[in-house]
Amino acid sequence: MNARTARLLALAVAALALAVGAAVLGWRHVHRVVSDPITRPDPDIPGHPEVLLPNLRDAVVVVPDRPHDPAEARAADRFERIHRLRRFTVSTNSRGLRGPEFAVPAPGPRVLCLGDSVTFGWGVAYEDSYPAVLARELGVEVLDAGVPAMKPPAIADWAERHARELDADLVIFARRPDWSGGSRDPVGDLTLAVRRVRAAVAPAPVVLVLPPVSTFDVKGSRAWREEDARIRERLATVPMLELTPIFREAQRGRPGIVLEVEGDAQRVVEQPGGAVLLEARGAGDRLAPEVVALFESRPDLAEPLFFDGGHPDREGYALFARSVADFLRERGLVPGG
What is the Cα–Cα distance from 254 to 303, expressed in whole angstroms? Predict the structure, then answer.
């Protein structure tokens, strides 16, 4: 091979490498921004909150698969920060609810589930969402009206506009107080929303469910007991189920990791056995960066019953549904039962 041929070959190899590199980068760009739109602003509700698009068919949603701060998931460099991702699909009916079409009026007993992303079934297939599992547990029709990120006042607005026409015999309102929007009284916002929903669907009973708080939700772990007490004081006549202690008890002994918070110390503890994998300090109400880094460096680590520090996993949603079903049976609130 002469010098000229060698130079041409080297240039060709370099060009091929650049082309392959560009293709790989393009593939990464295309495949890291793969979430399809699933919501739109509702012009008929005050504040125009996001509601689900109707008639979706297997829309793809990509979300973090580890605990994270909401700001991290919105950051411009989020794809450099978050490598643990999960994908799930979303289909909706013609009324914009997750799940199959349904008849109005109801042909039999019907439960309506109101709430945010936990009711929606964030991170899992519809069949694994808590409303779908609850339907199988109770043997009655259950409608999933959960909308990701919907705040308590907007849930009440939606219910006042739509809930009565859905002909439900029981309404389950699953939501914790929203501390993200700068409200002066998130507990008051939630309790007022529950009262508004009760008025909108009367005489159907309303049950309030407080979704479980992950151990990796530092602020929530510090606040959930006080929230529970304050809400019960304000809604003394509303049947109410707090799921956090049920989940904390169910986590004991299950393989995985949990976060223990004491003062400004955050300890990641492995189960079973109780070995401390990491201890960090000084993060306040947020996860310490060292904890986040541990999740990124160890894809095998996960919290039992949760996947992202805010939402149950498939097993967690099943526990959620069974706990709600047991509560309804104990209170004699199962429609048609």
Answer: 9
Exposure letters 169-182 (e unless 16+ CB within 10 A, then b): bbbbbbbbbbeeee
Nearest Cα to Cα of residue 175 among 149, 201, 196: 149
Phi, psi of 62 (to 5 degrees): -115, 130
pTM for this model (two decimals): 0.89
**Amino acid, single-letter form, for residue 310:** G
Residues 6+ apart with CB under 8 A from 287: 67, 68, 69, 216, 218, 259, 266, 309
For position 15, what pLDDT does the model report?
41
Main-chain phi, psi angles of 280, to 5 degrees: -135, 160
Contact in structure between 267 and 279 (CB atoms under 8 Å): yes
SS (H, E, C) 11-72: HHHHHHHHHHHHHHHHHHHHHHCCCCCCEEECCCCCCCCEEECCCCCCEEEEEECCCCCHHH
Q: How far is CA 189 from the centre of its chain?
A: 20
Under the banding of pLDDT at 50, 70 and 90, the label for residue 22 is very low
Q: How many CB atoms lie within 10 A of CB 115?
A: 24
Q: Among residues 197, 211, 134, 141, which one has the least CA distance to residue 169?
A: 141
Q: Domains of the chain (ranges plus CATH)?
A: 39-331 (3.40.50.1110)
- Coil, helix or strand at residue 184: coil
